[in-house]
Amino acid sequence: MTESASVRPVRRIFDGRNDSDSPALVREEGGAPSGDALVDGAYDALGVTWDFFRTVYGRNAIDGRGGPVEAVLRGGEPGATWQGSRILLGDGAVPLDAVAAQYTLGVIRHTAELESYGQPGALAVSLGNVFGLLAEQYSLKQTAEDSDWLFGRGLLPSGEATGSLADPARFRQAAHMSAYDETVDEDGGVHVNAGIANRAFHLVAAELGGNAWERAGRIWYKGLMGYAARTTNFSAFRYATLGAARELEMPADVVATAWSAVGVDR
Fold first, then answer.
1. DSSP per-residue string spanning 84-104
2. Which long-range contacts does 254-260 make (Cβ < 8 Å, 24+ apart)?
3. At 8, phi and psi to the nearest 5?
4. What is d(CA 266, CA 85) in angstroms, rounded to the nearest whole number?
5. Per-position DSSP letters for the chain, written without gaps between them
6. Model confidence over 17-59: pLDDT tens digits?
7. How many Å apart are CA 266 and CA 192, to the nearest integer?
8. pTM, to two decimals
9. What pLDDT shows up at residue 7?
10. How confident is the model at residue 47, as a pLDDT?
11. What are phi and psi of 86, to 5 degrees?
12. Residues of the chain with pLDDT under 70
């Protein structure tokens, strides 16, 4: 975790409605509300996410050095995606957890640089889901017991969630290694297989209880920061979180049991 003189986020919101290749800067740090609900909503969501990572994990912005946190609205991509150095947001309101998930992928880009294919890619997607939802829980002051563990509400026209950390199978994601999809499609099934790591995290969070960002979240964050590398797969991340739990003096047996429950036991 790198400290910087900056003690506030440096947010920049761009609008690609008229030119997606050269989007216009429509709000930056400290500027007055624009009056555009999408612009101001994105600005606020980035602020909450920055505060979450800074306050809970000591990370100063995506790059860890207080650098700018940028989002492009109405750039032609639906939902929320991470693109190199910015978060791309679609034409509709994007929920906090989805913004925070892409912020997390930016953090991964500056740290472990997990591959975007196969198990490392699925792990990256899962980490986005985990910390995206933790950011939402943090903003709502929800404990592990209070949360329904659903994420992505508002991304679909119906307003329904797109996934669940507690019950991945409900959203057609794998919840156990026995259901791991060896497909070559979708970058090796990164989204469907992310459910395995998602469920492992939820099992730890539910067992430890309380504020998940302070307990299970710290284990997962330390596992990412201290142990993960480009080719880290589920098995390697299991060892990473076990090591992190021991360093943090949290119950490693809970972590081991959770990973075993999803079929990752070595």
1. TTEEEE-SS---HHHHHHHHH
2. 254/204, 254/207, 254/208, 255/204, 255/219, 257/203, 257/207, 258/200, 258/201, 258/203, 258/204, 258/207, 259/200, 259/234
3. -150, 160
4. 35
5. ----S--S--EEEEE-SS-SSSPEEEEETTPPP-S-HHHHHHHHHHHHHHHHHHHHH---STTSSS--EEEEESSS--SEEEETTEEEE-SS---HHHHHHHHHHHHHHTTT---SSHHHHHHHHHHHHHHHHHHHHHHHT--TTT---EE-TTSSTT---SEESS-GGGGT---SGGG----SSHHHHHHHHHHHHHHHHHHHHHHH-S-TTTTHHHHHHHHHHHT--TT--HHHHHHHHHHHHHHTT--HHHHHHHHHHTT---
6. 877 788 999 999 999 999 999 999 999 999 999 999 999 999 9
7. 21
8. 0.96
9. 78
10. 98
11. -140, 160
12. 1-6, 77
AA identity, residue 177: M
Phi, psi at residue 5, to the nearest 5°? -65, -25
In this structure, are residues 143 and 209 in contact, taking their beta carbons and an 8 Å threshold?
A: yes
